[in-house]
Design goal:
The chain has 236 residues and is of the alpha/beta class. Among the domains are: 24-53; 73-192, Immunoglobulin-like (Sandwich), CATH 2.60.40.420. It is built from two helices and eight strands. A hairpin with a 7-residue loop joins strand 2 (80-87) and strand 3. The longest helix has 42 residues, at 194-235. The radius of gyration is 31 Å and the shape is elongated. The relative contact order is 0.20.
Length: 236
């Protein structure tokens, strides 16, 4: 027997008399639909691939054996940037820090030796602009101003086999992630603040989409329930 709200005692919507007339939804169906919407919301929120990105260029395996590589540090917009030579990494003082840095055209990159790890140099592995002498004393011993866009890889020749490699990415646009506060000798505060805002915007859109997916089955169930009531009244 149907109750006044349009549901039978077993929880299903009442079927009214008349050929081909059926309310078409049960409480169990509505619950399943709402659960499905909640699952879509949870799955959407748990998909970091929709938000998280590497935030840097593809170096083609250049940094595969570099222990201190942790993405490209965005220093675009700075007049000068400093890279430490002989920083801790690769099982000793055999690293450039940061290993990869992004700068704007016209930026001067200064390589500052720490005085640790023996003699180091900064040399392009192929035809390239970088070709310093080998130094062991501390101080800014080499610098290069980059005018053209591109990715400029370099190594410390004496310690290349240990993974002492670096790269300078010259780009008009921001590349990679902003440097951590108080971290390294990277010269200046750097850009990249817009990346966090963009991520927040994407998260907000995903949350709105998930909420809509949750509410849509509920609204559909209410629509069918109201239709069943109208059909019930018309059949009396």
């Amino acid at each position: 027997m149907a109750s006044p709200d349009g549901f039978d005692s077993d929880g299903s919507t009442a079927e009214r008399a008349g050929p081909g007339t059926r309310a078409g939804v049960t409480r169990r169906t509505a619950i399943r639909a709402m659960a499905g919407g909640a699952a879509v919301t949870a799955a959407t929120a748990a998909t970091p691939g929709a938000v998280a990105q590497d935030g840097g260029p593809d170096y083609g395996g250049w940094f595969d054996d570099v222990s201190n590589f942790d993405g490209t540090v965005d220093q675009t917009g700075q007049d000068s940037v400093t890279v430490a030579v002989g920083a801790e990494g690769n099982d000793g003082a055999f690293a450039f820090e940061p290993a990869a840095v992004a700068v704007s055209p016209g930026t001067t990159v200064q390589w500052e030796w720490t005085g640790q790890g023996g003699g180091h140099n900064v040399v392009s592995p192929e035809d390239g602009p970088l070709d310093s002498e080998t130094y062991s004393e501390s101080g800014v011993n080499y610098e290069q101003t980059f005018e053209e866009e591109g990715t400029f890889r370099y190594v410390c020749v004496p310690h290349e086999s240990l993974g002492m490699k670096g790269a300078v990415v010259v780009s008009e646009e921001s590349v990679g992630s902003a440097p951590a506060e108080g971290g390294g000798e990277a010269g200046g505060s750097g850009g990249g603040g817009g990346g966090g805002q963009a991520s927040e915007t994407v998260v907000g859109l995903l949350a709105a989409a998930g909420l809509a997916a949750f509410l849509s089955p509920l609204a559909f169930a209410l629509f069918l329930r109201n239709r069943a009531r109208r059909e019930g009244r018309s059949g009396r």
